[in-house]
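User: Hi! Is it possible to get a structure for several chains at once, not just one? Here's what I have:
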Amino acid sequence: MTSPQTRSQRPAPVVGSGPLLDVHALHVSFPAGGGAIARAVDGVSFTIAHGETVCLVGESGCGKSVTALSLLRLVPPPGRIDSGSGIHFDGLDLLTLPDEQLRRIRGNRMAMIFQEPMTALNPVLTVGDQIAEVVRVHTKASRREAWESAVAMLTLVGIADPAVRAKQYPHELSGGMRQRVMIAMALILEPQLVIADEPTTALDVTIQAQILELLRELKARTGMALLLITHDLGVVAEMASRVIVMYAGRVVEEAPVEALFANASHPYTEGLLAAIPRLGADQSRLTTIPGTVPPPTEWPTGCRFRERCAYAFDRCVTEEPALVQVGSAHRARCHLVQEPERRTGTVSIT
Amino acid sequence: MTSLAHADRAMDISTAPLLSIRDLTKHFPIRSGLLQRVTGAVKAVDGVSFDIAPGETLALVGESGCGKTTTGRAILRLVEPTSGSIVFKGTDVRALRGESLRRMRRYMQIVFQDPYGSLNPRMTIGAAIREGLIVHQLAEGRAADQRVAQLLDEVGLRADYAERYPHEFSGGQRQRVGIARALAVEPSFIVCDEPVSALDVSVQAQVVNLLRDLQRDRGLAYLFIAHDLAVVAHMADRVAVMYLGRIVELASRRALFANPLMPYTQALLSAVPVPDPTSTRKRILLPGEPPSPANPPSGCVFHPRCPHPLKDEACARIVPPLEEKASGHFVACIKQPSTLVSTPVSTLPSADTT
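Assistant: Yes, the chains can be modeled jointly so their relative placement is included. Here is the combined structure:
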């Protein structure tokens, strides 16, 4: 009943074989009315190694979900991935791949789990048929074999009475069960990479605990890599081996999970960590980040966080900081890394 | 369960409670067949009792479908309770009709999770805030305009925002509008129904702080309905945990987080992801999902999922009363408390600020 969660026991990511996913200078833009262009994702680069769990964190509008959709070329029109962007999956250039070949990768070698299974599942097909369809599309399995593997997969994701449930429609299942169905569908062909966009946000906390445990188990079993998009730093601490923090379309910090929590180097990351309510709190005032995330059409010059930053100084207005090395595999987009003396002194976080 | 005086004991309050709820139930009928006969009932709220003192925050926590939202709405009679009593400032709220109910509602307000759904999109937010002032004849004309400007200032919005429409605001700003609107009629009690659940963490912190400042300045009492236990840890004086329409544990914030006694509360607390990658906390994974409130289990409603080592057939037979197991700490469990979580979920500072 109780499951130990010693996080240091996480398997180390496989290194040395080249990254499984390599995202380079990803730009995604949407027309914003009046001829303006909103760059929802503005030059995002990162890699994911085989078997690694990477968390992409940030608040609404930071571009994390659009980044996730780009990886499968699912950005809803009129949004588009701009030229110059690069996405390589296991050596394949996904952005130039013909549709037919891309379809063979989607759902097979690379799969996605969405936040709201009710809108992602087909309401007029039984869940068993939907899972079996994935198998039929990508393999030579017969109808019967596909159905049997769908039922087996439902068992694996912890659905009681899988043979009965497989014949039911999405509306007959609870939210937690629908999310399990989505996971079954995403994982049935044992993809190398699973992209999960806020997979537990709509769920209750005890059900969330079950789903996170399930993802961990399945990951250990199949060796898949996981890109988990979330705004919940508790989930990050629990799942990630590496964390990428996004703000206003940019990566602002990237670090191994322990380093990020112990030594957050971007003031935005620092502010996010300070703003989380904690169970052990004693009615203390929460630390806040003043203001709100600006919309993509109103990003300030220089550092995009400077208007909300307690440490901002003149250089932050004129010059956007680059992602600079802070420590081993730890980078932050902040001038303070080079001018640490600015952090101490009279400034205080409101 | 009927004669609780836990508020007095837990808080050592000498004054009478502001709000006193006893045996509140709300059953929604299930109709079926051609004639739509009533064939059963969803027991959304099934015998809930508590007191709230002036200026106090009682948090009502639990998962989807536990009845926390229905409890909040039944208290304000936004849904009509099936039975039970609601006494607010010495007045029997359930006996009020028409104009007298409207007058009472001036003192009992609600802030919703999504203020966008509760604000008229064709009305400026100034007009929305003014509405309460006019209905309750608190101010008109220029005096009302000034009051609106004052309220906007108080919730951290610019006075000239009064001319804008709801869609022009961010989620956090809309929640501030919702709060200003509730405050306009100078209530002494506000039901906060998941007021920060839809907000990003940095904005959530701003709204939590605002609610606490307003409480301090105005002596407001809150029924704070939430599923996020960490937010509750920052807001509440006392916490009531609901499961399937009933309160299963009620205690001061400190006692509940440091020493939860009901197995469900222990599991719920252990399920909250801790933002600390070095944590080695053990988690109680509950099997299955909460049963339907249309067909609740016999005896203790939690027994089919309960991980308590002493669970036996008595748990399926006896409905556990909400009993005081320690001073001000009420638990609905017939077994001796067992600590299922080996590491405490929270380390509390020694000084209690309440």
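The CA atoms of residues 53 and 239 of chain A lie 7 Å apart. Chain A touches chain B through 57 residues (CB under 8 Å).

User: Great, thank you!
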